[in-house]
Amino acid sequence: MRQPLLSSVIERRLLVNYRVAPDVAARQLPEPLRPHLVHGYAVAGICLLRLGSVRPSWVPEALGLRSENAAHRIAVEWDGPDGVETGVYIPRRDTGSRLNVWAGGRVFPGEHDRADFEVHETPDQVRVALATRDGGTRVDVTVELDDELRGSELFADLGEASRFFRDGTKGFSPIGSSHQLDGMELRTDAWHVEAGRVRSAASSFFDDLDRFPPGSATLDCALVMRNVPADWRPLSAMTTNRNGQLAG
User: Fold this and answer.
1) What would the pLDDT profile of 206-222 be if each residue is shown by its tens digit?
2) 0.85 surpassed by pTM
3) CA-to-CA dists, residue 175 to 67, 91, 136, 248, angstroms
4) pLDDT tens digit sequence for 7-49
5) Concatenated DSSP letters for 45-77?
6) Segments in the chain below pLDDT 50
7) Are 50 and 69 in contact (CB under 8 A)?
8) Is 29 helix (H, G, I), strand (E, B) or coil?
9) Which of 18, 21, 78, 164 is most buried, by the most CB atoms less than 10 A from its CB?
10) Selection from 197, 247, 208, 190 nearest residue 92 by Cα
11) What pLDDT is attached to residue 2?
12) Nearest to 109 by CA among 180, 184, 187, 10
């Protein structure tokens, strides 16, 4: 099946970011992906995304769907045909939508697991909590909007953080037990993020000491995106081989 270009409105995109020891991040990645380092750290995080008006690009906006979604991400780079490319590896995607669970990996790239979401949102604060139906993942994050990015060791200011994530909008995630990765790219002409201040954050993924030993993953900063029209373009699947080289 040819996967369509999807159109949507990013009603809310909350990026909660961790700075991670490069060797620890590298162990989470399939070849040929490697950590994209910033000031000596790998960058990982949670994307908590509410999409509205989701539909194939030729369908009227009024017929689009709405859903809460989450993705655990690690910023990566790899050697492409024209040089080094950047994006994110997404080991897990979760959604509150039964349709997304069915359609992910079929109608559009990215397999999803089912989760229950609890959201409390005001103009100045966002809380998103989720628990997956399989019991494997829990997240509970509260972020307040701020006028500038404070306390980050990854990024000097909001502009630097915005550019980093805008340059890494290609995402790849596992396809079942195969050696292929599904790919999708976010595209928008209205990119805009705001600074956030994390008031509380818990993640069973990043708090797992087997995956991230003590001191190897530290909460760094948060960004918020609201009411941004965006398209989602399918990418060719990425295949790995034993030598860690990009195959066809």
Assistant:
1) 999 999 999 999 999 99
2) yes
3) 22, 10, 18, 16
4) 999 999 999 999 999 999 999 999 999 999 999 999 999 999 9
5) EEEEEEEEEEEETTS-GGG-EEEEEEEEEEEEE
6) 242-248
7) yes
8) coil
9) 18
10) 208
11) 66
12) 184
> Is the separation of the CB atoms in 126 and 143 below 8 Å?
yes
Tokens of 15: 């990026």
Q: Return the structure tokens found at 74.
A: 């690690």
Cis before 213 (ω within 30): no
Counting beta carbons within 10 angstroms of the beta carbon of residue 64, is it exposed (0 to 12), middle (13 to 18) or buried (19 or more)? middle
How does DSSP classify residue 133?
T
Which of 6, 10, 3, 1 minimizes the C-alpha distance to 227? Answer: 10
User: Is residue 70 a contact partner of residue 77, using CB atoms and an 8 Å limit?
Assistant: no
Q: Please choose, from the candidates 87, 99, 12, 101, the residue with its C-alpha nearest in 3D space to the C-alpha of residue 49.
A: 12
| Rg (the chain; Cα; Å) | 17
